[in-house]
């Protein structure tokens, strides 16, 4: 049996790391795309032999086709997880055109470019699964993250459009929308802002933060044949946050 091949963008920390670990632990060779050499190599060493570091800055759209072609030399790319993304907190009227463009460039344009190149490979090998990562910011309005919200709303719409167009090629496209998850980044943000932390927990019916592995498990479901009849869906993994009152 041929080993499955996956790509996880931004897989060297947080939710991407948990996702890459889940795939690798299940025998899937996983290429982890990261910008920082040391961080990406350390993440792969921690995950184990199935993790392969790819040092690349996804802001360089022009180089993406060659980078994906290089990964595909070994055969099909069975799974793509579009996890890499950036955020910035600013008052709406303070956000410059450059601020807005920077986040759209990383969170949306690079997802499109990577997906397009991976689809070219998948369509020649009988299909595959693409999993996009969205956010609670696309489920309801969150202040001070307008560009991030716009990018994630677009990711969800793009998920549906891709799913319909790519289904005849045997390619499924789904999306996971994480709620508030315990990561170093979120802990830092919430612990320094008790009011925000209380608000997050009070509107999450389960009353707790999620674990990174909760996202890894959801992505794994979409990535594998467990979800073979599922495409075009957005799955909130959020302890009920998006429907909380």
From TrEMBL:
Keywords of this entry: Oxidoreductase
Keyword Oxidoreductase: yes
Keyword Oxidoreductase applies: yes
Pfam family, one: adh_short_C2
Gene Ontology MF term list: oxidoreductase activity
Protein family according to the UniProt entry: Belongs to the short-chain dehydrogenases/reductases (SDR) family.
Protein name (Swiss-Prot/TrEMBL): SDR family oxidoreductase
């Amino acid at each position: 049996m041929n080993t499955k091949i996956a790509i996880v963008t931004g897989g060297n920390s947080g939710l991407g790391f948990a996702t890459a670990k889940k795939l690798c632990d299940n025998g899937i060779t996983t290429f982890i795309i990261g910008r920082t050499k040391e961080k990406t190599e350390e993440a792969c060493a921690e995950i184990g032999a199935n993790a392969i570091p790819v040092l690349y800055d996804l802001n360089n759209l022009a180089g993406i086709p060659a980078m994906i072609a290089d990964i595909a030399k070994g055969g099909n790319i069975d799974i793509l997880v579009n996890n890499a993304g950036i955020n910035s907190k600013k008052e709406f009227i303070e956000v410059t055109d450059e601020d807005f463009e920077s986040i759209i460039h990383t969170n949306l344009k690079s997802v499109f470019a990577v997906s397009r190149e991976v689809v070219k490979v998948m369509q020649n090998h009988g299909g595959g699964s693409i999993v996009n990562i969205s956010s609670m910011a696309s489920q309801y309005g969150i202040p001070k993250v307008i560009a991030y919200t716009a990018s994630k709303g677009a990711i969800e719409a793009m998920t549906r459009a891709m799913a319909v167009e790519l289904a005849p090629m045997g390619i499924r496209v789904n999306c996971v929308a994480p709620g508030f998850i315990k990561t170093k980044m979120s802990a830092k943000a919430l612990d320094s802002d008790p009011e925000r932390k209380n608000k997050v927990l009070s509107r999450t019916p389960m009353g707790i933060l999620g674990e990174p592995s909760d996202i890894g498990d959801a992505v794994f479901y979409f990535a594998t044949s467990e979800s073979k009849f599922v495409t075009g869906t957005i799955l909130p993994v959020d302890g009920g946050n998006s429907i909380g009152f």
